[in-house]
Amino acid sequence: MRAVITVIGKDKIGIIYRVSKILSEYKINIEDISQTILQDVFTMVMLVDLSESTCKFTDLKGKLENVGKEIGMTIRIQNEDIFNAMHTI
Amino acid sequence: MALYKDIIETVRMIDKENLDIRTTTMGISLLDCIDSDQHKCQTKIYDKIARSAEHLVEEADKMAAETGVPIVNKRISVTPIALIAGATDALDYAPFAKTLDQAAKAVGVNYIGGFSALVPKGETPGDHILIQSIPEALTTTEHVCASVNLGSTKSGINMDCVKQMGHIVKKCAELTKDNDSIGASKLVVFCNAVEDNPFMAGAFHGVGQPDKVLHVGVSGPGVVKVALEKNQDATMDELAEIIKKTAFKITRAGQLVGTTVADRLGIPFGILDLSLAPTPAIGDSVARIIEEMGIEHCGGPGTTAALAMLNDAVKKGGIMASTSVGGLSGAFIPVSEDEGMIDAARNGHITIEKLEAMTCVCSVGLDMIAIPGDTPDDTISAIIADEAAIGMVNNKTTACRLIPAIGKTVGDEVTYGGLFGSAPIMPVNLSDASVFVNRGGKIPAPIHSFKN
Fold first, then answer.
1. Residue B256 near chain A (CB below 8 Å)
2. ACT domain: which residues (chain A) (predicted)?
3. CATH of the domain at A68
4. Are residues B286 and B171 in the same domain?
5. Which of A49, B120, B141, B417 could covalently link to B152 via disulfide, CB atoms 3.0 to 4.6 Å apart?
6. What is the DSSP code (8-state) at residue B412?
């Protein structure tokens, strides 16, 4: 399964490092990544492949949310299907 | 992969605009639980529900975690109990309600619907016992919801039942008078009830349905309102297009969740009910959508036209997005459950008469309206008859969920908290309807029901 990770909040140093550290720990491959900074609000969207993941989805979700809390940003992981369902005919 | 801006839009809808799956409701047929022995029948009912819905809450929660879209309620609807209990020699069906309640507790759902009778053409002995058992059933259980379908376009309106229901609604309220008469909030009186409605309190599992099925009810008034806010200068037809596109996206989220959860539970996916179902939370109101279209206060002139457009556009967007749209699908206008509606009622901008007009063009009826506790039973019956007539003639579902707040009157409020919210007591026209109501009999089906 592929999933989309979104990180939203005030820009700071080390955001991508903190997220990708967790992903590499659990053998999760990053397939695409893009980011913008608009009026100091950092938004990152990351497409990841969970097929080799050694971590259960809900556990991974919890770990990412915890990192979000530590750095004061909102981090989400959602199944890619929800975005495809809502935005493609 | 979906585009960057689309991903951010979805995240914003969930995060800021209250997009959610309002309910996943498992419909369970109890026809194979029929037994002439009451005790055996109750045991079979409990076992079937507990077995069928064992993993419902777990799978729904798992899906919510994966997609990030909250699933607010997990519920069950069952075959109308009058059909099941009618085979026994029981003279009171409240014990069946207790069985449903225990089964609901065991599987962890918050409501179970189907303590119901379908009587548009008349009552069977089982229907009669069930209707008389409703007040006790609703006041001795926590999770059970009841409904009575007393009219249809094909059959007309059962006025004998209309007369009874005024009394039953009042009794439900009286038995729960210490709790703002909340008993009446769990009873819906329908005309043209649908068999696949996933929303409470009116859900039941019709006899034309499969053994088990999963329905989904999607909501998102906040998402529609924000979409309209961004288009201040749009014409009405342009607004309709925006609502259609928004409804499409919301429905697709529900379709994905519904089909996936059904698949994991190993049961068929039933229908997707796309209803703009408000909650008392700020930013989750249907009344505020109407106001966003340019009506100063919901209930003012223009409200019915705005609601008609909203309801139609929601249906059009939803139908393209799902393989099977059903249930009620449209806009709900419950008073106590809608922050904007509560505000309009408090300030006298909306009346029961205006709400009645609005029910001609939206998906349900007079819903969660608190009225003075001393309103005569016959007046409640007459309001039910008016609402049923709108449904019968317009070939649509209508319903009444009126709450006579015992010990309270206009100027007071009832407060339930949670999804049920709070409501100011609305004035009722007290012109005497007792002679009309006590005539009984039937209102014949309208001429346009003869389509064969």
1. yes
2. 4-78
3. 3.30.70.260
4. no
5. B120
6. B
Shortest distance, CA B10 to any CA of chain A (angstroms): 7
Domain check: are B334 and B422 in the same one?
yes
Domain holding B275, by residue range, is: 236-440
pLDDT of res. B15: 85
Residues contacting B400, CB < 8 A, separation 6+: B169, B188, B189, B365, B366, B367, B383, B384, B387, B388
Tell me how many domains chain A contains.
1
Give the one of A2, A6, A81 whose C-beta lies nearest to B11's C-beta.
A6
Structure tokens that stand for B408 in this block: 């309270």
CATH of the domain at B246: 3.20.70.20
Contact assignment for B11 to A8 by CB distance below 8 Å? yes
What is the nearest CA distance from A54 to chain B, expressed in angstroms? 16
Q: Is residue B69 part of a domain?
A: yes
State whether residue A53 is helix, strand or coil. coil
Rounded CA-CA distance A8/A79 in Å is: 17
Structure tokens at B109: 């759902």
CA dist., res. B131 & res. B183, Å (int): 14
Contact across the interface for A83 and B2, Cβ inside 8 Å? yes
How close, in Å, is residue A85 to chain B by CA atoms?
6
What is residue B115's predicted lDDT score, i.e. its pLDDT?
Answer: 98
Classify residue B12: in a domain, yes or no.
Answer: no
Q: How far apart are CA B72 and CA B186, in angstroms?
A: 18
Cβ burial, residue B241 (10 Å; 0-12/13-18/19+) = middle
| Residue of B59, B61, B67 to mutate for A, most A C-beta atoms under 10 A | B67
Query: Are B137 and B242 within one domain?
Result: no
**Residue-level pLDDT at A81:** 94
Q: What is the pLDDT of residue B220?
A: 84
Beta bridge partners of B20: B219
Q: For position B1, what pLDDT does the model report?
A: 54
Is residue A39 predicted with pLDDT exceeding 80? no
Residue B450 lies inside a defined structural domain of this protein = no
Size of interface A-B (CB pairs under 8 A): 67
Q: B196-216: string of b/e by CB count within 10 Å (b at 16+)?
A: bbbbbbbbbbbeebeebbbbb
**B249 at the A interface (CB within 8 A)?**
yes
Contact B193, B207 (CB under 8 A): no
- How many independent structural domains does chain B possess? 2
Do B169 and B299 belong together in one domain?
Answer: no
Name chain B contacts of A88, Cβ cutoff 8 Å.
2
- Residue A37's domain comprises 2-87
Taking the C-alpha atoms of residue A43 and residue A10, their distance in angstroms, rounded to an integer, is 9
> How would you class B381 by CB atoms within 10 Å of its CB: exposed for 0-12, middle for 13-18, buried for 19 or more?
buried
Does one domain contain both B315 and B434? yes
Same domain, B182 and B287: no
Which residues in chain A are closer than 8 Å to B67, comparing Cβ atoms? Answer: 78-79, 81-82
